[in-house]
């Protein structure tokens, strides 16, 4: 008996703002990603009090402008995915390609025609498109004019965007996700909500208000999708970090419970169960406000209740370890959501703690909490790849990482988890979201481009390319 279901969706994942480039072609407007500077300090820069969303090419680089030029080379890239045997390809539709300013009444047809071609190319190879409607690339105008997702008007703009793409593509695309890593806003709200220090990110009430608006907008997208076709699958997407207590000290156990509620569970509970969880008031009171302080429309809670998501997509890169009792413990430097260093885990080149067993735990936690299918839509190792003179990369470290995580998924399936598929992140090298670097590579395909934007952009298969091809061909039986 196979470790994975016969119809298991093997593939890969990308995001428009990190690989398309062509940031001002085809009528596209500026997105928030277009004004994020490149380099490992990009999150620090946007949190400066005077950050004003302007492009300053004298002092910064903007690698998202060029990406890997997928806009012009998508046919070549998807052909490579097909060569690996992809069953599905997760990508996003750039909101500002369809509504350049976000608040227009009518869409930009040139942007829609681009995605017509991308989807048609996937279909040519029998690759199932899995589309993220909003993936860290909201139109810049919605931040500058309206203040980002804390403004309730964005529900209307997102609903119009979602209706446009769902109506256009529902016959070709069965699988959708509403917002990428929606819960990431707890620690870095710039990407998902358009909030930085200068427009309210430091006030947690703004983040929870923005979440509420996104929950309602996402539920409306679910409703639109199901009205178009009841068999359409519209999921949410979470950033999940399995969380451990450093020791058995009850104080640390309690802190771990609270971190799980605040980060791993809150956004999922609302979107999957269709209502706010019992611990909502506690989360908000911690920051000095109450649920009743949020702006909530008369029909909002009913919309959430009647339009829960169909499945849970999530990213998994690392676990987190909690200790509030011993301030002398070393912090885990690279982890996106903090925590102390776990002495049992090794780390990546960027300090992310590598924990395959944590993925099996995550899958069990999510499936047993919600009893809805789960989908690992991001997972991978960001590493420095050193090609030889022929641009071959012998990335055995990446193969080892992915093998261990696939084995963990097989274990979760044996545990009874209903797992839909696996789309490793950055299946072709692209610009890192967290650091704005090309040198932080995830792909099975090497792209000749450096952090300064130099290179031929030529594509080369890494050792992991043929390895993953065999994994897919054997439905996860042959892991090398």
Automatic annotation (TrEMBL):
<dbReference type="GO" id="GO:0016052">
    <property type="term" value="P:carbohydrate catabolic process"/>
</dbReference>
<dbReference type="Pfam" id="PF00232">
    <property type="entry name" value="Glyco_hydro_1"/>
</dbReference>
<dbReference type="GO" id="GO:0008706">
    <property type="term" value="F:6-phospho-beta-glucosidase activity"/>
</dbReference>
<dbReference type="InterPro" id="IPR017853">
    <property type="entry name" value="GH"/>
</dbReference>
<dbReference type="InterPro" id="IPR018120">
    <property type="entry name" value="Glyco_hydro_1_AS"/>
</dbReference>
<keyword id="KW-0326">Glycosidase</keyword>
<dbReference type="InterPro" id="IPR001360">
    <property type="entry name" value="Glyco_hydro_1"/>
</dbReference>
<dbReference type="GO" id="GO:0005829">
    <property type="term" value="C:cytosol"/>
</dbReference>
<feature type="active site" description="Nucleophile">
    <location>
        <position position="378"/>
    </location>
</feature>
<dbReference type="InterPro" id="IPR033132">
    <property type="entry name" value="GH_1_N_CS"/>
</dbReference>
<keyword id="KW-0378">Hydrolase</keyword>
<protein>
    <submittedName>
        <fullName>6-phospho-beta-glucosidase</fullName>
        <ecNumber>3.2.1.86</ecNumber>
    </submittedName>
</protein>
<comment type="similarity">
    <text>Belongs to the glycosyl hydrolase 1 family.</text>
</comment>
